[in-house]
Amino acid sequence: MKVKKQHRKKKFLHKLNRKRMNRKQRNTGTVPCEIIKDAWDHKKSTYKNLTDMGLANDPNKIIKIPNFKQEKIKQAKVIVNKGEVENTDEEETITAVPIKKEVAEKLEKEAKAPRERRFMLPKGQVEFITYLLDKYGHDYKAMEKDRKNYYQETWKQLRAKIKTFMGIPKQYGEYLQARGLLDKEPDEEELKKQAKALVED
């Protein structure tokens, strides 16, 4: 007697939009980079597009990891053959000039362009640093012994924090403006003192 297999009854799910679901599955996603997006040809494959732009589809193939074992074998062969290098029949790969090489150049230029510094110190740290600067100026060793130095930071750690604070134009500018130090003419002795304190190890 033939065994009858039990099949689950197929149900049509009305809540699913198959057309939209299939379209979503087939979609490869949008290109977020505007430079690549403008140069992208939808008739070509991803690999072909990137090759034409002078970009790598797979960086592992372009930048090969050096094989330590193979290098040692080559060195051993040179020693065995008494300095004679074997003639290898390996053909040199000719690198074709990409059609849209300006894309890679634009990306490189954009990567090298200076960026706006968005790093900001927390409000609590700014208050602590400004308090120390107001009280001690640039005497870091005196700051170390302050009662508000709860975390017992060394004078070098405090100096590093103040350097960071001084490197943020927005926050340091606000501090100088609040103290009326922006329009004030710089005192040479004070500048020398500050420079000495910053350089001192």
From TrEMBL:
Bias kind Basic residues: ranges: 1-26
The Gene Ontology biological process annotation of the record reads: ribosomal large subunit biogenesis
Per its UniProt record, what Pfam families does this chain match? Nop16
Source superkingdom: Eukaryota
Region span, Disordered: 1-30
Cellular component, GO annotation? nucleolus
Principal location: nucleus
Keywords recorded for this protein, A-Z: Nucleus
Where does the UniProt annotation locate this protein? Answer: Nucleus, Nucleolus
Q: Mind telling me which InterPro entries this protein's record contains?
A: Ribosome_biogenesis_Nop16
Which family is it part of?
Belongs to the NOP16 family.
Any idea what this protein is called?
Nucleolar protein 16
Taxonomic path: Eukaryota, Metazoa, Ecdysozoa, Arthropoda, Hexapoda
Q: Which gene encodes it?
A: LOC106122066
